[in-house]
Amino acid sequence: MSYDASFAQTRLDRLAGQxxxxxxxxxxxxxxxxxxxxxxxxxxxxxxxxDSKLLKELNFKFMLMxxxxxxxxYRASHNDTDTLCGVIRLxxxxxxxxxxxxxEVQNMRGAV
Length: 112
Hints:
Strand content: 25-35%
Oligomer: single chain
Shape: globular
Helix content: 40-55%
Low-confidence stretches: none
Number of helices: 4
Number of domains: 1
Structural class: alpha+beta
Strand order of the largest sheet: 2-1-3-4
Distance between the termini: 39 Å
Order of helices and strands: HEEHHEEH
Largest sheet: 4 strands, antiparallel
Number of strands: 4
């Protein structure tokens, strides 16, 4: 199977559309991958308290972490291992995923 560059963003758009429709949430989610296990090692959620509570109530946090595990494994299966970490930016409940090297995400986490 060939690599589909739109695979991750398409899945993320679907998840956000299903769970965040009718909301107006904005903030960032930084995530670090575990290279050995092929999943999320850690994440930093940067949202207002009210938005953070809503993300939890809507089950978005849980579902996103599960989706990230799938997306990281997908990238790794296609030997795209230099950028298994990244940031998801929610703006008015629309999600944008940017894959980044771990060092860049760590720098972003340190600036928080």
